[in-house]
Each structure stands twice: as structure tokens, then as C-alpha cells.
């Protein structure tokens, strides 16, 4: 599967790295493939002949399905109830999630190639280098926070004795899941945009059997696509204020980006 990434400066040294949202090409994960109960989860792990990594994916899918179901129930709760207030707190916490984390989580194991769109005035080597550094930094940060969140999970679970909804437990559980997905995505993105032969050899598609071990130009797992149109939209960029919201809105509309996530890059440090 191909993923289209958009790379452009947004304010000062801040660059935006975002994936185009195309619902026709992004497969939807069916909740029916995930185990429904802990008993089903245990049976699936026992019957699985895969590696520890595959078993971890089964557990993550199970937890993700349960968290999505719980979140949907909170979203449907009547206004003024405790569940509605918990949902409001959750929205505020989610607004603090960094946009790079959302990018990494969108790079699933099914992605075997990335199309990188960038302003035509920029050197392609610099663009790919910046993307590679972002992926490398993400793999380090999310590995660290994954283990930290995993350590906090037992302590937050102890709060379940209180007569109130255990919001800290579910938030820490979500962060464990989110950092795990971001870690997997950042490592895969790093392998996709790297020159190392060892990283390409690891990119073997389970569906097509394509091996990227060959170092020929026609088989590199990235495609740099300079865009004159994107460069024109960046003409009015200012060093202090960055791109105007009007220009960002046009870019998001043209390339199918999430405006909320793109704006986070403008204010991030």
C-alpha cells in the first residue's frame, strides 16, 4: 500500500509532516477480526504460530477494539452526565497529542511505499533528510514513553477501587497503545526513507511478496514528488507568523489534510 506524505515549512524552523487522508485507499479495520473477550484473546494467542511480535499485535488489537467501544459509549452519553464530562476531559487530553504521533500511527505495516510531496524550490535530499530525522526521533521518543506508560499502568489500575470512573487508567492504557502504534509506524517510516540495505530488506510485503533488498532506483520504497503548486501557496509565508490560516486551509483542502493536526505543527516547539 502507498502512503502520500506532504512536507513543507509552516513557521520558522517548524515543518509540517502530514499524510493525505484518502478514505478510498486507507483500509478500514474491522472490529470482528479482534477477539471479543479475554477468553477469545487467550485462545487466539495459544493457537497462533506467529512470533512474539504477532502476539503483541493481537493484544494491541484487542485493547484498541475495547477502547474504541468505550469511547463510542462516552460520546453517546447525554449531556450533563458523568460519562459526558469524562468525554469532554478526554477531548481536551487528545488535543494535546503531538501531530507527529498521529502521522506515525497512520503508517501501518501494510504501507510499502511513500510518495513524498514537497515544494519544488526545496532540494529533495534535504526534504528526505528532514523526514528521516523526524522518524528517527519519533522511534526514540515513543519507545521511551511506551515503557514509561507501561510502568504507570499498574498504579493507575489501583484507582479502580474508587467509586468514580477510572479515567487515569483508561488514559494511561490509551497512551500505551498510542505510543506502541507510533513506535511501530516511526520505525517503518524510517526504514522506508533510509538508504541502508538492511532497512530495505526488512520491508517484505506479506501480500505481494515484494522484497526491497535490491538497491536499484526503480525499486526504492519512496517517490519524491516536487510540486510547483504547493510552492506557490508558500509564497506569503512569514518568518515570525508563518503561513496564514487561509493558506493552510487551501493546502489542506487541496491535499486532503486534517486542518486541526496541521495547525499543531505551527504552534509546536
Automatic annotation (TrEMBL):
Example GO biological process: potassium ion transport
Does Magnesium show up as a keyword for this record? no
> What InterPro entries does the record point to?
Mit_KHE1
Keyword entries, A-Z: Membrane, Transmembrane, Transmembrane helix
Parts of the chain that traverse the membrane: 145-174
The protein's matches in Pfam families, at most eight in alphabetical order, are given as: Mit_KHE1
For this record, an example GO cellular component is: mitochondrial inner membrane
| Protein's name in the database | Uncharacterized protein
Amino acid at each position: 500500500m502507498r502512503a502520500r506524505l506532504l512536507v513543507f515549512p509552516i513557521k520558522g524552523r517548524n515543518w509540517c509532516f502530514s499524510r493525505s487522508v484518502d478514505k478510498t485507499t486507507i483500509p478500514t479495520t474491522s472490529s470482528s477480526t479482534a477477539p471479543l473477550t479475554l477468553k477469545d484473546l487467550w485462545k487466539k494467542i495459544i493457537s497462533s504460530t506467529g512470533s512474539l511480535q504477532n502476539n503483541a499485535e493481537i493484544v494491541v488489537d484487542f485493547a484498541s477494539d475495547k477502547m474504541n467501544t468505550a469511547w463510542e459509549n462516552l460520546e453517546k452519553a447525554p449531556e450533563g452526565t458523568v460519562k459526558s464530562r469524562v468525554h469532554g476531559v478526554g477531548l481536551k487530553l487528545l488535543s494535546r497529542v503531538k501531530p507527529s504521533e498521529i502521522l506515525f500511527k497512520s503508517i501501518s505495516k501494510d504501507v510499502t511505499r511513500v510518495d513524498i510531496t514537497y515544494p519544488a524550490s526545496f532540494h529533495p535530499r534535504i526534504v528526505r533528510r528532514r523526514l528521516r530525522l523526524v522518524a528517527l526521533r519519533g522511534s526514540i521518543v515513543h519507545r521511551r514513553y511506551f515503557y514509561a506508560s507501561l510502568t504507570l499502568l499498574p498504579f493507575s489500575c489501583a484507582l479502580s477501587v474508587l467509586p468514580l470512573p477510572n479515567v487515569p487508567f483508561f488514559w494511561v492504557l490509551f497512551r500505551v497503545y498510542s505510543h506502541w502504534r507510533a513506535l511501530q509506524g516511526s520505525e517503518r517510516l524510517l526504514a522506508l526513507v533510509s538508504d541502508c540495505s538492511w532497512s530495505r530488506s526488512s520491508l517484505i510485503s506479506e501480500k505481494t511478496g515484494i522484497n526491497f533488498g535490491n538497491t536499484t532506483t526503480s525499486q526504492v520504497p519512496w517517490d519524491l514528488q516536487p510540486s510547483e503548486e504547493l510552492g506557490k501557496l508558500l509564497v506569503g509565508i512569514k518568518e515570525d507568523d508563518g503561513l496564514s490560516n487561509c493558506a493552510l486551509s487551501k493546502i489542506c483542502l487541496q491535499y486532503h489534510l486534517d486542518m486541526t493536526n496541521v495547525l499543531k505543527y505551527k504552534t509546536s516547539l
